[in-house]
Protein 1
Amino acid sequence: MASRSESSFHDSANPAPPPQPSPMKGEGVNAPQPLPNGEGVNAPQPLPNGEGFNASQPSPNGAGANALLSSGLGVNQEQQGVAPILRVKQVSKSVASADAPDGRLTILHHASLDVARGEAVALIGASGAGKSTLLALLAGLDSPTTGEITLAGFELSQLSEDERAAVRAGRVGFVFQSFQLIDGLTALENVALPLELHGVADAEARARAALDEVGLSHRLRQFPRVLSGGEQQRVALARAFAGTPAILFADEPTGSLDTATGARIIELMFALRDRHATTLVLVTHDPKLAARCDKSYVINAGVLQPWQAA
């Protein structure tokens, strides 16, 4: 998934015609659904090396999420509250491998799940089980080999990479194990940048409010290198929630923290999730953390199954 974020900034200077995704099967044209409070933009900044996850970069035409549907707007099932915010049907992912008998290595086998708006859902499993692969597929950062994924009313397999990015804009937030802050920007600038990229007029004010919400109003002008691991993850949480996302994907958010700091981050993340009525999809290897969620799934050797705490 290299070069996705690197190109997103240069492309916006060369406007292209708005992408027009196909309607979902059995539905009308998919209009972007409103966020819980009817406003907000959320987009993790491009990674320092220009690679990896890039959640909500502007679309190449510079128009953002609304460029998906410049005409013929309809009301999809997600807007009507009928469909889940995330639906996965028989999704598999395989990659070329010289070591596999048939030349293909299957990472994920026919996974299916539904995530209702406002739910907290955990994906649990050992390292290498396929958790992060599934998370990337759910967010449209990668494409499945077979199967269907519908996010916020949009069937992702019908969309181009740029259209998937436009779907994520304003709807999806991310929190990563390694924080993914830009070293050359202050805490305030790291939180404000995604909002500014999407034309939010009061980006700095909203960034300040988000940092205050995570207890960092006294660290606004500090750079990541002088912040502790816990403080860096709080900046990342502020960045994720500043745009009031409809759904937050968290990939091992405490994996780089000590036990005590990690516990405080989890408490903060769940408090923010409740306050903002945000859907949460959480990747973890911790059964205790998974047990806090509304429902959980375990991945073992690429097979996804419902999981319940013992």
Protein 2
Amino acid sequence: MSPASRTYSFALAGLLALAACSGSRKSEAAQPLSSTAAATASTQRAPAKPEASTPGAADPLANAAPTRNLPDSQAELEALLATASPQDETAIKGKLRKLGGKASLDLSRPAVVGASLSAGFGGIALSEALDKGIRSEHHITHLASTMFFKSPFQNGRTQIDEALAADATVVFALDLLFWYAYTPGDLDARMASLEVGLRNLERVDRVLVLGDLPDMHKGQPWMLDPSSVPPPDQLESLNARIHDWARQRLHVHLVPLAEWSMALATDEAVVVSPGEKPVLASSLMNPDGLHPNAEGVRYMLKRLDPNLQLGFPDTAPDALEF
């Protein structure tokens, strides 16, 4: 069921050089994060030698708080969730989890599933980063594989089987859905393939940290067959489906890789870590344009940390530090 034209596994690379630019999450229900952040990003056209870090879309902490005051009522929160931006969706879910007593992230037995990004191709494996970043006693089950692309349906099911068998407390699946969508065919074919991936994830009955689909059309053709890349309108529809699916499940924490990938398209100046000087987004990538280098992985993790804190506000601030 996976295309033979896939020559390498996707590392979700673009998703890391991504988070710098604010914008829409590319779903029909999405709304812009803020016009100010968008304007800041659009004017930061990556000077050759950026002089200093400035607050805004390029700052890793810029999206670490909701853009609006949130109500305390569960009914009002659920109503807002239907049309929330990715940033506000994360915060709304965090508040709903808090109301239900499920706002603390249990990092004692994480499992990492997915493809090349998670497996560490060209950069750092997510399991290695988690092992160094989790401050409490823990045991990590590493299941991600650079060979995921060879058979996404089979590999995806096997990885979820093993994560559940390991009694994982949280399943990290940042790039698991990529190869279900990046496949030759029309929208119907890609959507049908994506549904297979989502049905597989239905079996995860604990916290699932799931990434949506970044725009990888700038990946080198010798690494990613252009026939496998969904055009923008299809990618928007596929991501809308992922967001709709995740929105209905409180245990699913959706990481907005599509939104984060916006900087890659224009090679924005981005800040890897608070207080550091901006660098060009392209400098975070390997030459293939798909896989992040070690600095690119650090860039993503610096955004993932506050993103998880926003979604699980009862988690100790120092429980996970990348």
